[in-house]
């Protein structure tokens, strides 16, 4: 499994532990998130420090998760991300529609 789950109170941190967020990894992330939401979780943080690549499927999954949690008045955020991936998401204006902590 390439998605690692940890909990801190009512917040869940999902860490993508693969070099890309595409294909099966993107599907796994969406399935994990939907399962968490169905169990009542409305605060999800995502760690994208390791992935160096994201495809349109991965971007779609991120936008889907953000929208789904927003509808529940919850909180979805990317708390860690590598600079390459951040710059790519910023070039697509994804950073304007979801909370993404800028890498240091």
Q: What does the model show?
A:
With 104 residues, this protein is α/β, with parallel strands linked by helices. The protein has one domain: STAS domain (Transcription Regulator spoIIAA, 2-Layer Sandwich), CATH 3.30.750. The chain has three helices and seven strands. The chain has helices spanning 23-38, 56-71, 83-91, and strands spanning 3-8, 11-16, 20-21, 43-48, 53-54, 75-81, 99-100. The strands form two sheets. It has a five-stranded mixed beta sheet. The termini are far apart.
Please name the defining characteristics of this protein.
alpha/beta; two-stranded parallel sheet; 104 residues; five-stranded mixed beta sheet
Task: Give me a quick take on this structure.
The chain has 104 residues and is an alpha/beta fold. The chain has helices spanning 23-38, 56-71, 83-91; strands at 3-8, 11-16, 20-21, 43-48, 53-54, 75-81, 99-100.
Rg measurement, Å:
12 Å
| Envelope shape | globular
CATH architecture: 2-Layer Sandwich
Number of DSSP strand runs: 7
CATH topology: Transcription Regulator spoIIAA
> Count of helical segments?
3
SSE map:
Layout: E1 3-8, E2 11-16, E3 20-21, H1 23-38, E4 43-48, E5 53-54, H2 56-71, E6 75-81, H3 83-91, E7 99-100
Parallel strand pairs: 2-4, 3-5, 4-6, 6-7
Antiparallel strand pairs: 1-2
